[in-house]
Design a protein that fits this description.
Helix content: under 10%
Radius of gyration: 36 Å
Number of strands: 29
Length: 425
């Protein structure tokens, strides 16, 4: 019998311990205030549980002149609540905006704001320049806009930095001109008679979409400056346009295939000395353009296939240290303008097939020791007045490394390294 009472006592003790672990404090709400109190604000006994508080929820927002209130509720008993003050928020104005100076196509206007909570609170904001009338805008993910031609088919196009569809909507940044997935005539300004593109100085453009200005033959800007924030220039973006010059910013990481293809008036492309991230230049990007000189920036590690193919006015090419790959046909057909000198950087390990075929005026050219592969016909149609200097000791060693097809149809003099100088085999 004593054993039985002993066990019962243990059970009661355990139950009591368990209860003490879940019991509320002696009064509801601690010092937090809130519901559940008796009339006159006296505390009332709490339920037999420890409060499991939900997160604080704003029930009255603070303003620039008044405190707000937030509340939390016990998930075990929703009649148990706490409230606390939210400090005055000096930035929580209730603005009434009036356009006191209308914006123009290119010049910001003024929005004057008066706070309805306190009329002494006032400030001005820009009413952003509208850009060319008739442009069409597409909302992107609810936080930015993409711009297209809309009804604009000719003349100078002014791209705004910000846009809102009506005075009750917030201004959002214009970040894209067309879309990277556009095709042919869906390009933003494809095949229009526009003559120039002007960006607001505070623009935040990041993408120029595929075919955006393709076939714009009247776009004859002598030095179109791509905005500094642009990271991507889509495929065919300016192909067969009338551009005469273009400046590429340091932040561009992607120039799509055929981006400036057949821009026959394009004499200059200005790259920064160094890009901020690896830049990819797609195949045919400047093929058949009117380029006379190009200096590839530090940070470009690969020149794609056909990038400068048939640029027959090209006279000067500078390739950066750090470049590792020169794609097939990259400079093929640069024959007529007098491209007499080209230095292949020591960092290059790959020269693609027909990369320099038909470049009949380069003399001499040195193939660095680190080149592991040279494609078929890389120097096809070179002539006897040209010299190729190879770091291998003889033709057998070079052919073993690159296969003998690398010198297919090459009529140039090929010299090999004897340990101190280049000489004929």
């Amino acid at each position: 019998m004593k054993g039985m009472f002993k066990h019962v006592g243990i059970i009661v003790l355990v139950a009591a311990i368990g209860f003490s672990m879940t019991a509320c404090d002696s009064v509801l709400g601690g010092g937090g205030g809130g519901g559940g109190g008796a009339a006159g604000g006296e505390p009332t006994p709490s339920g037999s549980h420890t409060h499991q508080w939900d997160t604080w929820t704003v029930t009255t927002a603070a303003t620039c002149v008044a405190r707000g209130v937030e509340t939390r509720t016990c998930s075990l008993d929703t009649s148990h609540r706490e409230t606390r003050d939210i400090p005055v928020d000096p930035n929580a104005h209730d603005w009434d905006w009036i356009e006191t100076q209308k914006p123009t196509t290119t010049v910001d206007g003024v929005l004057a704001g008066v706070c309805q909570n306190n009329l002494s609170h006032a400030e001005n904001r820009p009413a952003y320049a509208t850009g060319t009338s008739g442009l069409a805008f597409e909302l992107i993910n609810g936080n930015a806009y993409r711009v297209r031609k809309g009804t604009v088919t000719s003349g100078v196009v002014n791209i705004p930095a910000m846009y809102r569809p009506d005075k009750n909507s917030p201004y959002l940044p214009v970040k894209e001109i067309g879309y990277t997935g556009d095709i042919s005539d869906s390009g933003a300004f494809y095949n229009t008679a526009i003559t120039d593109v002007v960006f607001q100085s505070d623009n935040v453009i990041t993408i120029i979409g595929s075919y955006a200005f393709s076939e714009c033959v009247s776009l004859t800007n002598s030095n179109l400056s791509i905005p500094a924030g642009v990271t991507s220039i889509g495929s065919y973006a300016f192909s067969n346009s009338g551009l005469k010059g273009v400046s590429i910013p340091a932040g561009v990481t992607f120039i799509g295939s055929y981006a400036f293809f057949k821009c026959t008036s394009l004499a200059t492309v200005t790259f920064p000395t160094r890009v901020t991230s690896t830049m990819s230049i797609g195949s045919y990007a400047f093929s058949e353009s009117g380029l006379t000189a190009v200096a590839i920036p530090i940070g470009v590690t690969s020149i794609g296939e056909y990038v400068f193919e048939n640029c027959d006015k090209l006279k000067s090419v500078t390739l950066p240290l750090g470049l590792t790959s020169i794609g097939s046909y990259a400079f093929s057909g640069c024959t007529d303008a007098g491209l007499t000198a080209l230095t292949i950087p020591e960092s290059v390990t790959y020269i693609g097939s027909y990369a320099f075929s038909g470049c009949a005026k380069i003399n001499p050219i040195f193939i660095p020791a680190g080149v592991m592969a040279v494609g078929d016909g890389a120097f096809k149609n070179w002539v006897a007045t040209q010299t190729i200097n190879v770091r291998y000791p003889n033709p057998t060693a070079a052919d073993a490394a690159w296969r003998n097809n690398w010198r297919t149809d090459c009529g140039a003099i090929i010299k090999y390294w004897n340990g101190s100088t280049y000489e004929l085999p």
